[in-house]
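Kindly inspect the following:
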Amino acid sequence: MTQRKLHIACYDVARPSRLRAALAVTRGYATGGQKSVHECWVTTIEQADLLQTLCWVIDEAEDRVLLVRLDPRRHTVTLGVAVSPVDDDCIVLGVA
C-alpha cells in the first residue's frame, strides 16, 4: 500500500482568475486549510500530479507555489478552534 504523507500547500497568485483555479486544484487534494494554505495528505504520485497541475494554472513570472512535507516525527500543535489531523486508513481526494 502506498503511504500518504502530510504536506502544506500554499500559494500567492496575482490574478483573481488564476487564484480561483489554484484554489480549485489544491482543494482537490486538501483535507483542510484556510484561504491559500492547505493540509494535503498525498502520495508521491499525487504530489507530482498536484504540482504539475498547478504549473498549468499559475504564471511562474508573477505567482508563487510552495509545497512542504512536514516531519512525521513532530507533534501537531493546534490553536483556537483548529482540529488536529487524524490518520485514517482511507482519505478520499477530489470530492467537494
Notes: The beta strands are 5-12, 30-34, 37-42, 64-69.
